[in-house]
Write a structure and sequence with these properties.
Blueprint lengths: L1 H25 L7 H12 L7 H32 L1 H7 L2 H7 L2 H11 L4 H24 L4 H9 L4 H39 L4 H10 L3 H29 L5
Helix pairs in contact: 2-11, 3-4, 3-7, 3-9, 3-10, 5-7, 6-7, 6-9, 7-9, 9-10, 9-11, 10-11
Length: 249
């Protein structure tokens, strides 16, 4: 299975690079090729305007981590409460579709202005955008818990903590990991968008700087590094999910 996954990723990466290289040959004045973009990366690592890429990368990753963990915790708590208590479900469920239909750009802009383009603004905007999606996933997972099992637990006077630990958490574990993987792919996009609007440090600031310079090669080089790191994080989450949930298969 691991071999098949590696083979699939190799094919995807080779196809992507081949398509990219062909596009660079067809439109050399518009689209820099892979070799030029990768060769530009070392120049972005040195100090200077638009440089210090690792400093910006680390700062963005810290924001991604903070916002992702916060969103996942909120989604897990809200999702379980919605599954356990009908009143909570009735109060929250109508707002989830509304929250998911508001354009991300609007949420980010309003939040950045309200929080004066601060660190809290980036985290808050990201949590507001991503939490509803993860909440729906956890809620759907928690709803699969068998009511008969809950009835048996109630008959034996099991505590709320015991029911949560022994029944709900094992049931929603796949949903939580699924949400974590989804958040990993979504959170960084919102973080970068928020950084682009007003942060001086972060990958969004790098993209803004080089876009202002009209240097697409530098933009793609910075994006290449960031996407490479985020794909690695997603792969780590997937691997952790398979190992921790191996008992279910």
């Amino acid at each position: 299975m691991i071999t098949q996954r590696i083979y699939r990723w190799v094919v995807i990466i080779l196809t992507l690079f081949l398509t990219w290289a062909i596009g660079g040959r067809i439109m050399p004045a518009t689209l820099p090729g892979p070799a030029a973009v990768i060769g530009r990366i070392p120049l972005l690592l040195v100090p200077g305007p638009g440089g210090n890429l690792m400093t910006h990368l680390v700062q963005s990753l810290l924001r991604v981590l903070s916002a992702g963990i916060t969103a996942l915790i909120l989604a897990t708590v809200i999702g379980i409460m919605m599954a356990q208590q009908r009143s909570v479900e009735l109060a929250v469920s109508p707002w989830l579709p509304l929250a998911m239909t508001i354009p991300t750009l609007v949420v980010v802009l309003v939040t950045m202005v309200l929080f004066q383009f601060s660190e809290a603004a980036v985290i808050t905007a990201t949590v507001l955008v991503t939490t509803p999606y993860a909440t729906v996933t956890v809620w759907e997972g928690a709803r699969t818990v068998d009511n008969d099992i809950l009835s048996v637990a109630a008959a034996y006077d099991a505590s709320s903590w015991a029911i949560l630990r022994e029944i709900y958490l094992p049931a929603i574990a796949p949903a939580v990991f699924g949400s974590a993987r989804y958040l990993a792919s979504m959170v960084w996009k919102v973080v970068v968008l928020a950084e682009t609007f007003g942060m001086s440090v972060g990958m969004g600031a790098v993209f803004r700087f080089w876009y202002g310079q009209g240097d697409l090669e530098a933009v793609l080089a910075a994006l290449f590094v960031f996407v490479f790191v985020m794909v690695g994080i997603q792969a780590g989450i997937t691997h952790g999910k398979e190992r921790l949930l191996a008992w279910q298969t």
